[in-house]
Prior knowledge:
- With about 170 residues, the protein is mostly helical.
- Helix content is about 75%, strand content about 0%.
Amino acid sequence: MSEPINHSTELLDDDLVAYLDGQLDEATARNVEEWLSRDEAARLRLRHLSKSWDLLDQLPRIAVDETFTRTTMAVVTTSVANELMQQQAAVPSSRRRRWIAVAASVVLAGLLGFVVSLLILPNPNEPLLVDLPVIQNLDQYRDSDSVEFLQLLKQKGRFTEEDGNAPE
């Protein structure tokens, strides 16, 4: 079964025009006819649309010559050519954007790799930094006769942490 007719003005006109054109299936046409038999306003609207339709048939026909066809084709051709030129002009900029995106991705990947390597790999200078106080005073330590002498100086407070002279 077809859908019931909606009585809004737009749908009313659509249904009535389709009815006048013979474009409705049997069930919908039957619904429209039943609706027209009950609704005086719908019948009036159908008459107005029918008269308008008949008046359109009475309008003079304009003959179109070969010039109209040529100018229309020229306009369409020009429009298509312009659109094609715009698309072709956009291709280099899209390629450029693609190359910029690839370059940015490579730089970002390199930077990320550098940061990860700094965080994961041990610092080869770390042992030197730990032994820096000893390295700075190596000449003084060489002048001493033995390690026991240096330990004795440490016990007596001769090496202070502030001076950076404390042996480990």
